[in-house]
Amino acid sequence: MKKKLLPLCLSALFCNLIPASYAALPDTAVSGTTITHRAKPGIETTHAAPTLSLPMLQKLQWQPINEHGTQTIILNSTSQQLNEGHIQGAIATFALPANQGSLEITLSSLIKDKQVYSPNVLVFDEQLRPAAFYPSHYFQYQRPGIMSVDRLEGVLKLTPALGQQQIYLLIYTTRSDLQTSTQMVDPAKAYAKGIGNSVPNIPDPIAHHTETGELTLKVQSESNAGNILIGQVFSSSASKPITVGATRTASISPIKTAPTDVSQSATSIVKPVLNDTEQYFNDAIKRAINNGDIDKALKLLDEAERLGSPTARETFIKVIKNKK
């Protein structure tokens, strides 16, 4: 009977497993960029995630957005408003699919009449636990193109953890953002530089930050590495978001969950897979096979490889061979 176990298990391994999509996390969340926001003298900018309670988040209206869609959002006096801590003015809230793989989200804030909404983005997992924070200076000034206008823009690469149906995006601006501005590039300068002429010595226009504006949100699937994992592989007693594009550690009150014997939070992973996480899956695979639960072992293998484990498959095959 044992001799038949190996070919049966290997057949299940190679024929029934859906190919794993690897969700490696970056060693550094974002490469260095030039901050375009200009603060007025005496104004101290804030780049920490806000403290928001779970009841408050549950009261917000989260607009669903499908993958492969582009959404235009007009923020005005009729939009949802949030004035809590440093947050001030109109906000945008979205629910994104978390069961369709990794997502690449391009957020643009359009500059019109020398005014622009300076966005910050806080990303939550399905349980509304904070997972990633993109401060306003992450969204950089982009010059106009053939099909685009002056704008602030940033790309969010997110990988929802397994077992979730939705993740959430909160877009807001802050009191300190409203005291800053964005330096644009004069069209005459851009044109002269583009054709190789001498650049005229004229001042660049300034876009003032406002509580309202126009955003575009483009969502598409993303299979490359470098994503931020949204949600927890294991339960945790505390949760803090990864701050993207800033050197400070985000400050946010944790939303507590029931602790378990495994305390490692996936939102703190900054490498493809931590040694403790990899060892956890390898040990779980061994136990499942030794207990005769091959189906559970296959599921553990699939989940481990989705998280980027390089040894889970080798462990599975080795233990199966030892059962001969």
From TrEMBL:
The keyword Zinc is annotated on this UniProt entry: no
The UniProt record lists the keyword Disulfide bond: no
Signal peptide coordinates: 1-23
GO cellular component, one term: periplasmic space
A Pfam family recorded for this sequence: MalM
Keywords for this protein: Signal
GO biological process: carbohydrate transport
Protein name in the entry: Maltose operon protein MalM
Native species: Xenorhabdus kozodoii
